[in-house]
Amino acid sequence: GTEVRLRGLGNPETREDAVFFKREYTFPRHLSNGDSSSLLNRNRESVSPNEKHLVLLRDGRTLIGFLRSIDQFANLVLHQTVERIHVGKKYGDIPRGIFVVRGENVVLLGEIDLEKESDTPLQQVSIEEILEEQRVEQQTKLEAEKLKVQALKDRGLSIPRADTLDEY
């Protein structure tokens, strides 16, 4: 395959550059549980770089793009990436270009069946419209949460704020 070397991202002890091969998609052995039929141990030639993949991130964002590289930590490089935002029965795609995702942020990685992708009941809308709908939805959720907290407070209960839960 086509070899791409990334300077400074390889093994710091040997000073080797990280090497990513086009069409090489492997995961570390400990992720596959030794199951040779596992998706993680697929034949390298069976994964085409022309296949679209969907990536669900830990923060809830959804990315769709062509998987170009993956390493032993599940770090991903996506090409021609779009961020898809869903609100109700509508969705919008925001072009993001080349996207590098740190493996610890990946919740789900899946190949998209292009034949079924067009059979969606969702309606595609403009970027401006989906962003406005997302803002309205988030504002509605925030107001509902404030009412819930106030109702609990009136009853003598308190819920710790989400931003204080991460403090040690």
From TrEMBL:
Residues 40-115 form the Sm domain. This is U6 snRNA-associated Sm-like protein LSm1. It comes from Pongo abelii (Sumatran orangutan). Plays a role in the degradation of histone mRNAs, the only eukaryotic mRNAs that are not polyadenylated. Probably also part of an LSm subunits-containing complex involved in the general process of mRNA degradation. It comes from the Eukaryota. One of its GO terms (cellular component) is P-body. The gene is LSM1. The keyword Ribonucleoprotein applies. Belongs to the snRNP Sm proteins family. Keywords: Coiled coil, Cytoplasm, mRNA processing, mRNA splicing, Phosphoprotein, Ribonucleoprotein, RNA-binding. GO terms for molecular function: mRNA binding. Residues 128-155 form a coiled coil. It is found in: Cytoplasm; Cytoplasm, P-body. GO terms for biological process: deadenylation-dependent decapping of nuclear-transcribed mRNA; mRNA processing; negative regulation of neuron differentiation; neuron differentiation; RNA splicing; stem cell population maintenance. SMART domains: Sm. Interacts with SLBP; interaction with SLBP occurs when histone mRNA is being rapidly degraded during the S phase. LSm subunits form a heteromer with a donut shape. The lineage of its organism: Eukaryota, Metazoa, Chordata, Craniata, Vertebrata.
